[in-house]
Design goal:
The structure holds three protein chains of three kinds.
Chain A (H helix, E strand, L loop, with lengths): L2 H7 L25 E6 L4 E6 L2 E3 L2 E4 L6 E2 L7 E6 L1 H22 L5 H13 L8 E8 L5 E6 L5 E4 L1 E5 L2 H11 L21 H18 L6 E8 L2 E8 L4
Antiparallel strand pairs in A: 1-2, 1-10, 2-11, 3-4, 5-6, 6-7, 7-8, 8-9, 11-12
Helix pairs in contact in A: 4-5
Chain B lengths: L10 E6 L3 E7 L2 E3 L2 E4 L5 E4 L2 E7 L1 H22 L5 H13 L8 E8 L6 E6 L5 E3 L3 E5 L2 H11 L6 H16 L9 E7 L2 E7 L5
Antiparallel strand pairs in B: 1-2, 1-10, 2-11, 3-4, 5-6, 6-7, 7-8, 8-9, 11-12
Helix pairs in contact in B: 3-4
Chain C lengths: L3 E5 L4 E6 L2 E3 L2 E4 L5 E5 L2 E7 L1 H22 L5 H16 L7 E9 L4 E7 L5 E3 L2 E4 L1 H13 L6 H18 L7 E7 L2 E7 L2
Antiparallel strand pairs in C: 1-2, 1-10, 2-11, 3-4, 5-6, 6-7, 7-8, 8-9, 11-12
The chains are: A alpha+beta, B alpha+beta, C alpha+beta.
Chain lengths: 245, 205, 196
């Protein structure tokens, strides 16, 4: 802190009339921690997130699920991680838009269109953004797994995998290495390895490893891991305990 | 951006294995976003102790010279090599001497004790607080990425060759997610009677 | 906006410095030399804050010359570079640091190899095949990445230098009034060419 300001605020009480007016500023944002991770495969997509909810060093809840299933018979799953009030609001508004779409058009909203809808919703608040890292997971028109990731103002991209939130920087290089096989070469030929689709079983293992590691080194990550899996049969959920410290 | 510890960029990681240790660094030196050199190693050897220095480039060079001087003086006085544990304390006290005007570095020490043959690794903050670690230590602008990589790839009692693969993958994948690190890498794998230095050919971006 | 550029070739180092001395919006001088010969085979090129640069360069020059007279031996380029870096590093944590960036171009007569060192005002030092300070770096380093080889002949090196100068003339918003091109090789330092 600048000492000049400290002195300014510690003016004696008698000087009140001449002292500069005290400014109060409301901060509309806070950070509620947590991390999310999505990986897509040949006929599935998973979106996982820890269930810890924090502010500062306090744990508000050990079980506040942040991965949401959107309405419809061919569901998409979405998580908006960062400032949870904004995240909740975005997901609720999105869910309503998705529901009304199905009523108006008598068909479910595709993953591709949902991604574009999220972009317009995020960019619609360009000057007062939702403070969230958003990931959408589901199946595309061909039944393949699809993952879309967004920045707070709506830039988005379809990817094989993506980590978002507090421990994204810890998990993302691990995903590059283990999902996209970056920096790995075939010992026989010396050529870079080509990434292929992972089995659902391997993917879930990878997700658990990623979160166990992130929990170990990031204080905002822990308690429980909620893994949501989308296949043609719908959404299934798996829970996995993480360290609570 | 004017934070001294992230002007020049760079990363360090050290890992312990079964009767072996490894230490690795990247090769970049930049000024903010501009890369000035891709031949700026950050690991220095003093007897059987290794130190990786990340942070402000000038302090990396200055400290490497200070430690060379101090270890040479130790060798002359004691007529023996300095052990990694002793060297770590030398690093700590040297940094704390500048408590109120610090060197902007994040050092990592690695080595094998020549008497006991025990692997030794540790890290420091910029004023010399030692972090004694059994598994791995990281430092530099990609420390977050390195933590994620090491925590998921490292396992106990790795043999030298496996330790090399582990530390190399940790370093390469971490620095590929950091704009201020990369442009090559150096890995030292240290066993009781052999030191192997390898250069990593990595992405150049 | 000063241009300070160094390129090593197989047998020499080419040093290019702009001739304009600028203060605010005025060009004060069009035949400025931003280098000092600090030893028979070592050239110091500098840029930075107005008063500091020449003061620092001549301080280095004088001390190297004094050392040479006392010991009747020429200091090698790496030794001189080390000395300069130490001076800058000490200055950095003093009450009023020197705001000077330098290139040290030398020919090491012991190893028979040219050598170029880049040092900024923070005293970050690195040995490089080619280097530049300031805005010139943004325009020329990519050209040098593409065209530089360690086995360049002097003629080829000067050709690459001309490409860099042409690019700088095209892109820099202020006329730098031509350049002085100097060469450091086994015979010492010489001025190769001066342009308008």
């Amino acid at each position: 802190m600048n000492t000049m300001f400290a002195e300014q605020f510690n003016e004696p009480a008698t000087n009140h009339s001449t002292a500069a007016p005290i400014e109060h500023r409301f901060n509309p944002y806070s950070d509620n921690g947590g991390t999310i991770l999505a990986i897509s495969g040949a006929d599935y997509a998973v979106l996982a997130g820890d269930t810890r909810h924090i502010s500062g060093y306090s744990i508000n809840s050990r079980f506040q699920p942040r991965v949401h299933t959107l309405p419809g018979e061919k569901p998409l799953i979405v998580s908006a991680n960062g400032f949870s009030a904004d995240g909740e609001t975005l997901v609720r508004r999105l869910a309503q838009r998705v529901e009304w779409y199905s009523y108006n058009h008598n068909k479910p909203l595709s993953a591709k269109s949902c991604a574009r809808l999220i972009q317009t919703m995020l960019y619609g608040k360009r000057m007062f953004p939702y403070y969230v890292a958003t990931i959408l997971a589901g199946l595309d028109e061909n039944g393949r797994g699809a993952v879309y990731s967004f920045d707070p103002v709506g830039s988005y991209e379809r990817e094989q995998c993506r980590a978002g939130g507090a421990a994204a920087s810890l998990i993302m290089p691990f995903l590059d290495n283990q999902v996209n096989l970056k920096n790995q070469v075939d010992p026989a030929t010396g050529e870079p390895k080509i990434a292929t689709d992972l089995s659902l079983e391997d993917t879930v293992k990878l997700v658990k490893d990623a979160f166990s590691s992130a929990t170990e080194r990031h204080i905002q990550v822990g308690d429980y891991l909620e893994i949501k899996i989308v296949t043609k049969d719908g959404v299934s959920v798996e829970y996995f305990p993480l360290k609570r410290d | 951006m004017s934070d001294p510890s992230s002007i020049n960029g760079g990363s360090i990681v050290a890992m312990a294995g079964k009767d072996c240790v490894a230490i690795a660094c990247d090769m970049r030196l930049g000024m903010q976003a501009l890369t000035v050199s891709n031949d700026f190693p950050k690991i220095f050897q003093y007897n059987n102790s290794f130190i990786g220095l990340t942070g402000l480039g000038t302090d990396v060079t200055t400290l490497s010279e200070v430690f060379r001087y101090k270890v040479n003086m130790y060798n002359l006085r004691e007529e023996r090599d300095i052990e990694p544990e002793t060297f770590a304390n030398l690093v700590s006290t040297t940094l704390y001497e500048k408590r109120f005007g610090p060197y902007f570095v994040g050092p990592v020490v690695a080595g094998i004790n020549s008497k006991s043959g025990k692997p030794y690794i540790c890290g420091f903050d910029l004023i010399g607080c030692i972090n004694f670690a059994k598994d791995f230590v990281v430092g530099g602008t990609s420390s977050h990425q390195l933590f994620g990589m090491c925590e998921s790839l490292w396992e106990p009692d790795l043999e030298p060759e496996d330790l090399f693969e582990t530390i190399s993958q940790a370093l390469m994948n971490a620095q590929d997610r950091d704009a201020l690190s990369g442009w090559g890498g150096i890995v030292y794998v240290i066993t009781k009677d052999k030191i192997v230095k390898r250069l990593l050919k990595t992405r150049q971006d | 906006m000063d241009v300070i550029l160094g390129i090593t070739t197989e047998k020499e180092v080419i040093v290019i410095t702009s001739r304009a001395a600028v203060r605010g919006v005025s060009i004060l001088k069009t035949d400025d030399d931003k280098t000092r010969v600090v030893a028979p085979h070592t050239l110091l090129a500098y840029t930075g804050e107005a008063g500091d640069t020449v003061q620092f360069a001549e301080y280095i020059q004088a001390n190297i010359q004094l050392h040479e007279m006392r010991n009747t031996t020429e200091l090698s380029p790496p030794a001189i570079t080390s000395f300069i870096r130490t001076q800058l590093a000490t200055s950095l944590r003093s009450r009023k640091p020197y705001n000077v960036n330098v290139l040290v171009a030398g020919f090491d007569t012991a190893t028979d190899k040219p050598e170029l060192n880049w040092i900024d005002y923070l005293a970050s030092r690195v040995k490089v095949p080619y280097a530049a300070h300031g805005y010139a770096a943004y325009y020329t380093l990519s050209l040098l990445d593409r065209w530089h080889r360690t086995d360049l002949t002097l003629a080829e090196g000067l050709e690459v230098a001309d490409m860099c100068i042409a690019e700088l003339k095209k892109r820099l918003p202020i006329d730098f009034k031509g350049v002085e091109i100097k060469v450091v090789d086994k015979d010492g330092v010489r001025t190769e060419k001066v342009t308008e």
